[in-house]
Specification:
- The structure holds two protein chains of two kinds.
- Chain A is an alpha+beta fold.
- Chain A is built from four helices and five strands; from the N terminus they run βαβαβαββα.
- The longest helix of chain A is centred in the last third of the chain and has 27 residues, at about 90-115.
- Chain A is globular and about 55 Å long.
- Residues about 1-10 of chain A have low confidence and may be disordered.
- Mean pLDDT of chain B is about 80; it is low at about 625-644.
- The chains are: A alpha+beta, B alpha+beta.
- Chains A and B meet through helix 2, helix 3 and strand 5 of A and helix 1, helix 2, helix 3 and helix 4 of B.
Chain lengths: ~120, ~650
C-alpha cells in the first residue's frame, strides 16, 4: 500500500540546501498556500520527481518565519477547514533572488564540469 | 534592522509558546488528514490510507521538536527545566539547602564587604582633578633608622622646591594645626582641629569652594590678612549652613579673622575632623617660614604631563641635597622621596585590609569546599538515579549541567543573602572603623555587584563541578549493578572526599591560628598595664589662646582657678593637669643636649618625649611605680627628666 505514495523508484529527495529556494519559489508563483499545498505543488510541478519530506518541510517553514522571509496567517481551506497559510514577504522575495542566483551559479559550474568530462 | 525584527519575532514566540504549540499541532494534523483523504481518493481503504499517511509523515514528535528548535530557545527551555528540577530536589531536603545557603551567604557576604571597602579605599581614584598625576613629596634621611623613611617637610625646603624645580605643574603645602574658634565677643569657644594650606592647594587639587573664595597669595604669608576657610562640617554645625557668614568675622585664638569661604561637603581630605583651614604661611612666624630644620608639612605636587614621577623626584632630590649641604650643621634631609597620593592616603590600612581580604577569601574557599563535600555526599545517595538517567540516554554533559544547577541555585541564593549581609556589615564597618581614610566613600556600586556575581559563578563552578564530574564518571553504570544501598561508593570517591577534607582542615587551621593570634594581641592591648589606675578617671582637653594668656602668670592663674573649681565639684575626688594623659601615645618630643656628652652627629641627637604635669596629677592617677612606668613608655635611646 505504501507503494501508492513512495518507493516507485523515480522519486528523489530534494538536494540539500535547495528546500528554502523551492518553498520561496512556490510561494512566489502561487501566492498564498498552506503546508500541504506547498508539498503537493513542489511534487507535481517537478513531474513527481521531487518529494518534500514533511519532517523537513515544517521545521524549514518555521526557520523561514524566524528569518522573516514568509509570514503566516490562519485561513479556511476549500474543504472549509482551518489552515495556516504562508505568503512571501519583501525580505523573502529578496532572499529568493539571492538563492536563485546562487543556485544558477553552482548549477552552471557543475554542468560545465560534467560536459568537459 | 532585520536582526532586530528577528529577535522580536523570537521573543514573541517565546511569550506565546503554548499558542505556538497548539497551532503547530493543528497544522500537522491537517496535513496528515489531507494526505489520508488523498489516499482514499486514490482508492485505498480508510484503514490503510490512515496507516500510509502516518507512515509517510514519520515521527510527529520529532517534527514538532525540530520546528520548535528553529526558534533557538532550546537552551533556555533546557535550563528552565534544569532549574525546576534543581529547585525540586533542594526543596525535598530543606535542612541541607538551608545549611548550604547560609554557608555560602556567609562566605560571599564577607568577601563582598571587604571588597567594597578595599575598592573604596585602595582602588577608587581620589575625588580630585586628574588624581593620577598627584604625588606626595617627603624628605628622606639617608641614615634614617626608624619609620618608613618618609619624613615631614620643612617650610623652607618646600618653598625652595616650588620656586626652583621645573618637573611639576605646581606644588602645594599643608600642615595639621589646631585652634580655638569663638564668636567675636569670645562666645562659644571650642578647641578644634584645623589645617594650614597654601594658596594654590585647592586649585591644585581641583577643589572649588561651595561658597566664597579660597586664599590669595598675599594672604598666604606669615603676616598676611587673617582669613579662614570653613569646612562643610563646622559650617553646618556652628553656622547652621548660613552662607551670610562669608565676609563676617570670627575669633581664632582670639584674633579677629574674616571668613572668606566654605569648602564643599565632599572635601574631607586629609582628615574629616578638620574644621577650618588657615593660609599655610600664617601658621608660621616670619622667622620660621623659611626654616629648613623644622619639619611638619606635607607637600602635594602635580606632575607636568609626560614627566615621570621618578625623574621629577630626582630633580627635586638633587635640589634638596644642595639645601642639605648649605645647612650642614642642622637636621636637613639629603633626599626627597615621593609616592602617589592614593597610596599615601591608604598607607596605614593597606596591609591590614589586604590581610583581611585574604582571610575572608580563605573563608569563602572553606565554604565552597564545605558545599562540595555536602554535594559529594549527597550525590552518593543519588547514584542509582543518575545511573538510570544515564542508561536512558542522558548525555554526560546534560547530567553534569543538571547537577551544576543545584550548586548554582545554592550559590545564587547564598549570593543574594550574602549581598544583603554585606550591605549591613559594610555600613557598620565604615561607620565604626574610625581611622579608615575615605570612609565616607564606602558604598556598594555596580562594580561591587559585578564582583559578587563573579563570586557566585566562581563558587558555583568550584563547588558544583567536582561532585558533578565525579558522580557521572566512568563507573556510572556500576550504580545499576549495586545490589545493596550502601552509601559511599568506590575507593576513588572516598579518596576525593578525603582530599577535600584535608584541604578544608588545612585552611581552617591557618585561619584559626591567625584569628587566635589577632585575638591574643587584642587581649594584650586591652589589659596592658598603663602603670596607673584608669577606672573612675575621666580626661578632658582644653587649650588657651596665646594672645589672652601671654604671660606664664596668667596661665598659672587660670590653671589654679580651674583646678580649684573642679575639685569643689560634687563627685570629684581629685583633679590634676598633664600635657598628655597615659596611653594617649607619644607627643611633644624635644631635642636636648648634654654638655659633657655632645651628640655624635646632627641627625643622631638626644630626643625625649617631654610631658608637663601639676603636682596633684600623680596622686590622681595613682601611679604604682611612677618612674618605672614612665621610663618604659620612652623609647630605648632616650632618657627622661621630668621636672615637677
Amino acid at each position: 500500500m505504501a507503494a501508492l505514495i513512495r518507493g516507485d523508484g523515480d522519486r528523489d529527495e530534494i538536494p540539500p540546501g535547495t528546500l528554502y529556494m523551492l518553498i520561496l519559489k512556490t510561494l512566489a508563483v502561487r501566492g498564498r498556500l498552506h503546508g500541504y499545498e506547498i508539498a503537493e505543488y513542489i511534487q507535481s510541478s517537478s513531474y513527481e520527481v521531487l518529494q518534500v519530506e514533511e519532517g523537513s518541510l515544517y521545521p524549514a517553514l518555521q526557520r523561514m518565519l524566524v528569518k522573516g522571509w514568509v509570514k503566516a496567517e490562519w485561513g479556511v481551506t476549500a474543504g472549509s477547514r482551518r489552515a495556516r497559510y504562508y505568503t512571501l514577504t519583501p525580505d523573502g522575495k529578496r532572499q529568493l533572488r539571492i538563492e536563485l542566483s546562487q543556485f544558477e551559479r553552482v548549477m552552471g559550474a557543475i554542468s560545465r564540469v560534467i560536459e568537459t568530462a | 534592522m532585520s536582526l532586530l525584527g528577528e529577535w522580536k519575532r523570537r521573543l514573541q514566540m517565546l511569550l506565546h509558546r503554548d499558542e505556538f504549540r497548539r497551532e503547530l499541532e493543528e497544522e500537522l494534523r491537517l496535513h496528515v488528514e489531507l494526505r489520508r483523504e488523498q489516499q482514499v481518493a486514490r482508492g485505498a481503504s480508510p484503514e490503510s490510507a490512515r496507516r500510509a499517511a502516518h507512515l509517510r509523515f514519520g515521527n510527529l514528535t520529532r517534527i514538532h521538536e525540530r520546528s520548535h528548535m528553529a526558534w533557538g530557545w532550546n537552551w533556555l527551555e533546557r535550563s528552565v527545566r534544569d532549574l525546576k528540577y534543581g529547585a525540586r530536589t533542594l526543596w525535598r531536603s530543606p535542612s541541607f539547602s538551608v545549611v548550604s545557603v547560609l554557608v555560602m551567604a556567609l562566605g560571599i557576604g564577607l568577601t563582598t564587604s571587604l571588597f567594597t571597602i578595599v575598592r573604596a579605599v585602595l582602588l577608587r581614584p581620589l575625588p580630585f582633578h586628574d588624581p593620577g598625576n598627584l604625588v606626595m613629596l617627603y624628605e628622606h634621611y639617608r641614615q634614617n633608622t626608624g619609620g618608613d623613611g618618609f619624613n615631614a617637610v620643612a617650610p623652607g625646603d618646600y618653598r625652595d622646591w616650588r620656586s626652583q624645580t621645573h618637573s611639576f605643574e605646581d606644588m602645594a603645602a599643608m600642615r595639621g594645626y589646631g585652634g580655638i574658634m569663638s564668636g567675636v565677643r569670645g562666645e562659644l569657644p571650642e578647641v578644634v582641629q584645623s589645617a594650614g594650606g597654601s594658596a594654590n592647594l585647592f586649585s591644585l587639587l581641583g577643589v572649588s569652594p561651595a561658597f566664597g573664595r579660597t586664599f590669595t597669595a598675599a594672604e598666604d604669608q606669615p603676616e598676611g590678612q587673617p582669613v579662614v576657610l570653613l569646612t562643610w562640617s563646622i559650617f553646618q554645625r556652628r553656622f547652621a549652613g548660613d552662607p551670610s557668614i562669608i565676609g563676617k568675622q570670627v575669633h581664632l585664638d582670639a584674633i579677629p579673622t574674616t571668613v572668606i569661604g566654605v569648602l564643599p561637603s565632599w572635601f574631607t581630605y586629609p582628615d574629616a575632623k578638620i574644621q577650618f583651614w588657615l593660609p599655610y604661611g600664617q601658621t608660621f612666624s616670619p622667622g620660621d617660614y623659611g626654616m629648613h630644620d623644622g619639619h611638619q608639612s606635607m607637600v602635594v605636587a602635580r606632575l607636568k604631563p609626560g614627566v615621570s614621577a621618578e625623574s621629577a623626584t630626582r630633580e627635586v632630590s638633587a635640589l634638596q641635597y644642595q639645601i642639605h649641604v648649605a645647612n650642614a650643621s642642622k637636621p636637613v634631609a639629603e633626599d626627597v622621596w615621593s609616592r602617589p597620593m592614593i597610596d599615601d592616603l591608604a598607607k596605614n590600612v593597606r596591609t591590614p585590609l589586604l590581610v583581611l581580604l585574604g582571610a575572608v577569601g580563605c573563608m569563602l574557599l572553606i565554604a565552597c569546599l564545605n558545599l562540595t563535600n555536602l554535594l559529594v555526599a549527597r550525590s552518593a545517595t543519588r547514584r542509582r538515579e543518575v545511573a538510570v538517567r544515564g542508561a536512558l540516554g542522558g548525555s554526560r554533559v546534560a547530567l553534569i549541567c543538571e547537577q551544576m544547577t543545584e550548586s548554582s541555585l545554592i550559590c545564587m541564593a547564598g549570593g543574594g543573602l550574602g549581598l544583603l549581609l554585606s550591605l549591613a556589615s559594610t555600613f557598620w564597618l565604615a561607620a565604626h572603623w574610625r581611622n579608615l581614610p575615605r570612609a565616607e566613600s564606602v558604598h556598594v556600586d555596580g562594580w561591587v555587584l559585578t564582583f559578587t556575581s563573579a563570586l557566585v559563578v566562581a563558587a558555583a563552578l568550584l563547588a558544583g563541578l567536582v561532585p558533578a564530574i565525579s558522580s557521572t564518571g566512568k563507573g556510572l553504570l556500576s550504580g545499576l549493578r549495586d545490589t545493596s544501598r550502601t552509601v559511599g561508593g568506590g575507593s576513588a570517591r572516598a579518596r576525593l572526599r578525603k582530599t577535600m577534607l584535608t584541604a578544608e582542615i588545612a585552611l581552617t587551621v591557618v585561619l584559626l591560628i591567625s584569628a587566635g593570634l589577632l585575638f591574643k594581641s587584642f587581649l594584650h592591648l586591652r589589659t596592658t598595664d598603663l602603670g596607673c589606675r584608669i577606672d573612675h578617671v575621666i580626661t578632658m582637653k582644653f587649650g588657651l589662646p596665646e594672645i589672652q594668656y601671654d604671660t606664664r602668670d596668667k596661665v598659672v592663674r587660670f590653671h589654679e582657678a580651674l583646678l580649684e573649681r573642679l575639685r569643689r565639684l560634687p563627685g570629684v575626688r581629685s583633679a590634676g593637669l598633664v600635657s598628655v594623659p597615659p596611653g594617649a601615645g607619644p607627643s611633644g618630643d624635644r631635642v636636648f643636649s648634654i654638655l659633657e656628652r655632645p651628640a655624635p652627629s646632627y641627625n643622631l641627637q638626644y630626643d625625649a618625649i617631654a610631658l608637663t604635669a601639676d603636682p596633684q596629677y600623680f596622686s590622681v592617677c595613682r601611679f604604682h611605680c611612677c618612674a618605672d612606668a614612665f621610663s618604659r613608655n620612652m623609647s630605648a635611646s632616650t632618657t627622661i627628666t621630668t621636672s615637677l
